[in-house]
């Protein structure tokens, strides 16, 4: 393939990248590695409109979804690479004590508290991440109790916690969700 054929093929399948040195209401896009950047209007250049709001919400949703995917990928990788199961963040004696609260539990194998400790750690980490996402959505920088309540209310997996969270009024709950 000669040089002109390669150039033609590059023009047919452009590679687009974002360059930050455009004007305040523009984003520079580079079409190919050897093509100069072209300034185009960015989504923030338009006035606040329903389209812009929808765009921002979609971007935010995508970012939060990506955070959760990265979280779970990191957790799976950490579990797969784990070799010493005895070193846990949560104390195993406390986990055993909680397990023995159930009268039907008579014997506990050595592996069970380790698995429960890791599961509790993951639940706490995911709940914290989802709570932080809610904090960011409300443009705050401090995690509050209502962010945790909102994370529990929004996530079906955490339905088992609904009974222990404070019951806000219906109007307050609508604001959280």
Automatic annotation (TrEMBL):
It holds the Pfam family Histone. The keyword Nucleus applies. Its main location: nucleus. InterPro entries: H2A/H2B/H3, Histone-fold, Transcr_DNA_Rep_Reg. SUPFAM superfamilies: Histone-fold. Residues 79-152 form the Core Histone H2A/H2B/H3 domain. GO terms for cellular component: nucleus. GO terms for molecular function: DNA-binding transcription factor activity, RNA polymerase II-specific; protein heterodimerization activity; RNA polymerase II cis-regulatory region sequence-specific DNA binding. Belongs to the NFYC/HAP5 subunit family. This is Nuclear transcription factor Y subunit C-4. It comes from Hibiscus syriacus.
